[in-house]
Specification:
Length: about 70
């Protein structure tokens, strides 16, 4: 009887460890998704900065061309 109770307790402990491991894996997945979202945000901001810079360059070139032809 005591051996059965001990085996049941060990099985319950193993199940609890498995559930905890699954929870930790889920937290890690959420963390990875968050990191991917932050990376995508940073790439979008970099692309916007490049677009702004390109627009400024185009405006500068246009002003220079206007000055040459004006």
């Amino acid at each position: 009887m005591a051996e059965t109770v001990k085996a049941q307790a060990e099985a319950a402990q193993a199940k609890a460890i498995a559930v905890q491991t699954q929870a930790e894996a889920a937290v890690a997945q959420v963390g990875a998704a968050q990191a991917q979202a932050e990376s995508a945000q940073a790439r979008a901001e970099a692309a916007q900065t490049l677009a702004d810079w390109s627009q400024t360059q185009a405006e500068t070139a246009q002003a220079f061309a206007d000055k040459l032809t004006g």
